[in-house]
Amino acid sequence: MKKFFKISLMALALTSLGVACTPINHTISSPTQNTPTASLDTAKEVSQLSYISGIQSPEDLVQIPNTKWIIASGMAPKSGLHLIDSQSKKAQRLIAQKASQPSHLYPDSAPQPHADEMQIHGISIREIGQGKYHLYAVNHNGFDKNITREIIEIFEVNTNHAMPTLTWLGNVRMPNNYAGNAVVAGADGSIYVTVMMHPEHTLDDIFAGKVTGAVYRWTPTTHQFEKLQGSEFNGNNGIELSKDGKFIYVAHMQSLSKITNTNPAKVVATARLDYGVFDNLHWAGDKLITAGSMALTCQNGLSFDCLKDYHITTINPDNLATNPVMKGKYTADFSGISTVLPVNNTYYLGSFYKDKMAYFEVK
């Protein structure tokens, strides 16, 4: 158990960075479209970053829609969830009060985790009306390093107060204690999670570019996860749903696939970044957006040493055409870029291991 947990943490760190240490050469099955790779020539340079401190490993970021508030995950033991005021640029831990019992939607829930039992990876938010939202969070159980409890926590976020409040609704366990990475939920309450590496695979398999992960779907009717056949890729990472819920977007290393929301799933479009890697995926208006490390200096295959600069790229959801909009240089103060969140003219950046998040403004 302890050995598996250590391996999982290594794998999770690699997934957050979005890289493996050798080129990815596996074949994706018969997509109907294959978009050309864009260049960085038109991307604007990020000249300077500002920081919001006090957040350990803010791997993923979401905005509470139509508000000034941002929620950040904390992919480190005892980090959990954080609430950021985008106007004052101040952050604080976001802690749910003790619930009397889980919601009827999640009758098989494990006990509500203590705030220090929250080691949160990917997060996703969905509006349910009347100023309330459901927040989905991949929890690796950050309280005891000898325990693995891979689980998806679900919360209600209420914005009908001066400051948003958080209420725990319940959770759903990952199948076979698989380590989840990113999460998204559909309008019907179905939950979709990426798994980067199944237990039968090793880090060497990921480095070799082999198929190691998949997408899993939980539904309110079955109350269990099923693997979507056809969603198996190398290092499944970021995930999003199309606006109508008919398609799933899956980031996996330097590739992005659009698959049908069916089982088995069918790949309908693919994209590849020659200049970098895909990581977390989120909607930004009518486009998808991602941020990740750049690979331009990786002459002999991807490695930690060469993956330091970063890119911000938007994606056309129909054909997956990519458009690099920003690029930035590595600094000792901030690296390990894992996600981007645009709010008006400000871009916020997450990191899978730094003790802060970053932001910059675009005129």
UniProtKB/TrEMBL annotation:
The record's section on Pfam families has: SGL
Annotated protein name in UniProt:
Gluconolactonase
The signal sequence is 1-20
Q: By its UniProt entry, which PANTHER family does this protein fall under?
A: PARAOXONASE (PTHR11799), PARAOXONASE-RELATED (PTHR11799:SF12)
Keywords of this protein's UniProt record, alphabetized? Signal
Q: Which residues form the SMP-30/Gluconolactonase/LRE-like region domain?
A: 176-251
Q: Which domain of life is it from?
A: Bacteria
Q: Which organism is it from?
A: [Actinobacillus] rossii
Q: Is Electron transport among the key words of this record?
A: no
Q: What is the lineage of its organism?
A: Bacteria, Pseudomonadati, Pseudomonadota, Gammaproteobacteria, Pasteurellales
Q: Does the keyword Glycosyltransferase apply?
A: no
Q: Which InterPro entries match?
A: 6-blade_b-propeller_TolB-like (IPR011042), Serum_paraoxonase/arylesterase (IPR051288), SGL (IPR013658)
